[in-house]
Amino acid sequence: MVDGESGSPRIGQLVRINRGREVDQHAIIIGVVDETFVLLADGDKRKFDRPKRKNIHHVDLLDYISPEVENSMLETGRVTNGKLRFAISKFVNEELTDWKKGDSLYGER
């Protein structure tokens, strides 16, 4: 689901933060500033109105793009914090289910 082989960030794409205070937390890309920085929000600590500007090298791009968030951003240019929380919790629940089966998203066993 990532945009081609380049791994470029897309709006609605889920990321795992790997640097800073919020290490190992998930967030969703709600904006791309340039090739180096993205805007992240999680709907809880980081709301849509005050996104976190984060260096792309400080996050892991995951192969999951939330269709709800992507469609909302394309249609209205905004997304509710509830949709952000829902998309993250949906992904985390799927990840836990896969982990219990023995698969890991991050390639670890």
Characteristic key phrases:
single chain; about 110 residues; alpha+beta; SH3 type barrels; five-stranded antiparallel sheet; 5 strands; about 25% strand; globular; disordered N terminus
Instruction: Provide mean pLDDT, rounded.
Output: 87
What spatial form do the alpha-carbon principal axes imply? globular
The CATH architecture can be named as Roll
| Biggest sheet features | 5 strands, antiparallel
In CATH's first tier, which class applies?
Answer: Mainly Beta
Derived from helix and strand composition plus strand pairing, the structural class reads alpha+beta
List unreliable stretches of 5+ residues.
1-5
Nutshell version of this structure?
The protein has helices at residues 67-76, 81-101; strands spanning 13-17, 26-32, 37-41, 52-55, 59-65.
